[in-house]
Amino acid sequence: MGLETKGIYTVHEFTLAVKSTLTTGQFNDVWIRGEISNYTNHSSGHRYFTIKDKNSQLSCIMFKWHGKNLRFEPEHGMNVLVLGDIDVYEQRGIYQVKVRDMRPDGIGELYKAYEQLKNKLAMEGLFSPDHKKPLPGFPTKIGVATSPTGAVFHDILTVLKRRYPVNILFIPTVVQGESAAKSIVNSIEALNRTDVDVIILGRGGGSIEDLWAFNEEIVARAIFYSRIPIISAVGHETDYTICDFVADVRAPTPSAAAEIAVPEKQELANQINRLRDRLIENEKRYLSDRQSRIYELESGVDPRLLLERVTQYVQYIDELAQKQSSSFGRLLEVKQALLDAHTGKLDAVSPLGTLSRGYSIALKMPKKMPVRSIADIEISDEISIIINNGKIRCVVNDKEECKWK
Amino acid sequence: MEMSFEESLTELEGIADKLEKGQLSLDESLLLFQNGIKLVRECNTKLKNTRQNVEKLILENGDIKSEPFDAQE
């Protein structure tokens, strides 16, 4: 066949023909497994990379508007599953996959994605204790978001009923699979529009894939922005999901969440009884204290006691008087003796004493001056001589000085 | 307005503390005691009357509704 019958394509025509063949066929909406290499997160927001296996490689592009829904940050060397459609890049004549969604492939990759998100949210402060809301001590209505099937809701109801029956608002929630994350977010948002005062977000145990919805960023953020405190109870005691870190309280199991949410009725009844006993005990003591105070005061004003006191005072006064009079008598004796002694002394020096011993006193008249010296007298002076029992009036005839000693 | 169980319990604890500390007049003490015993009764009644009532929340075109939910189902 000649050129004319076959016709001649331009490069562009050929490329378009190939593109048309490829893109209308079976290569749309396919999942492809591979390892990421040459990963570039372009400043335009589009991601360019290659996925490869041992034998082949495939160019991929993920546009910004698809990439914004990614639930993890792809890295070089990561094993992934990509969902996309075949496409031909006309300018360079290459075929590539336009990636619409991408998942970590395998448990190792899930853990990697989990760690990535955990670190990112931790950096943002979503796990900070500052943001933890306190649980109500006595909730009146509890919102429960969990699967309508399975044992979890039943377990929660049973525990709540036993411990402290309250109003429960149940919102059936998809907790596994494609729609789970969105369903959980919807449930949290819906419960925030009701009057529940605490939310239990629960799911039974399962593999990391089963629990994956609870590791999704949108779920973490919905919990963070919830106005109502949330207790997360996902999986078994050993399972930790991102939800557990963001939630206000993490319960190891759904039953434990119910125990955390409410106080125990019996314990409360005991507490009230203890308070009642304290009231009665204290009031009794108060009253008996007052009673004994009254007895005390009453005995203070007893007339017998008054009489006894008066008698005691009388006796005391007598004692005082006794003491006083006896000491006065002693004082008198001492003074008398002193007086006698002084009187004796006076007698000894008295001129009257001298006269009684036979001496006389001569007084010069008319001034009755005692005559002490011969010089006091002149001849013809009048003198009066006083003797023991009389006076003799004399005139001096003569005088003579003598030395008797 | 009726007090919640929590408020009643808190007030009851406060009264028990006050009575324990003493330093009250006889009238005050008797009044507190009476109030306390009243609160004990109220709390016990509230506890006794707690019931588990389960409702189901339904989302319909962005509106939320609730309907009784039979937990046995």
Could you explain how this protein is built, in words?
The complex is a heterodimer of chains A (405) and B (73). By secondary structure, chain A is of the alpha/beta class. Chain A is built from 12 helices and 14 strands. In chain A, a hairpin with a 5-residue loop joins strand 1 (30-41) and strand 2. In chain A, helix 5 (151-163) packs parallel to helix 9 and helix 6 packs parallel to helix 7. Chain A is rod-shaped and about 220 Å long. The termini of chain A are far apart. Chain B is of the alpha+beta class. Chain B has one domain. Chain B is 55% helix and 19% strand. Chain B has helices at 5-21, 26-48; strands at 53-60, 63-68. In chain B, strands 1-2 form a two-stranded antiparallel ribbon. In chain B, a hairpin with a 2-residue loop joins strand 1 and strand 2. The longest helix of chain B is centred in the middle third of the chain and has 23 residues, at 26-48. Chain B is elongated. The model of chain B has no long low-confidence stretch (mean pLDDT 83). The interface between A and B is large, with 36 and 35 residues. Strand 7 (167-172) of chain A pairs parallel with strand 1 of chain B, so a sheet runs across the interface.
Give a concise summary.
Chain A contains 12 helices and 14 strands. Chain A is α/β, with parallel strands linked by helices and 405 residues long. Chain B has one domain.
Describe the global form of chain A.
rod-shaped
**CATH homologous superfamily of the domain at 115-128 and 141-262 in chain A - what is it?**
Succinyl-CoA synthetase domains
CATH architectural category of the domain at 115-128 and 141-262 in chain A: 3-Layer(aba) Sandwich
Count of distinct strands of chain B: 2
User: Unreliable runs of chain B, pLDDT <50, ≥5 residues?
Assistant: none
Poorly predicted sequence stretches spanning 5 or more consecutive residues of chain A: none
Percent of residues in helices of chain B: 40-55%
Series of secondary-structure elements of chain B, N-terminal to C-terminal: HHEE
How large is the count of helical segments of chain B?
2
Give, in spatial order, the strands making up the sheet with the most strands of chain B: 1-2
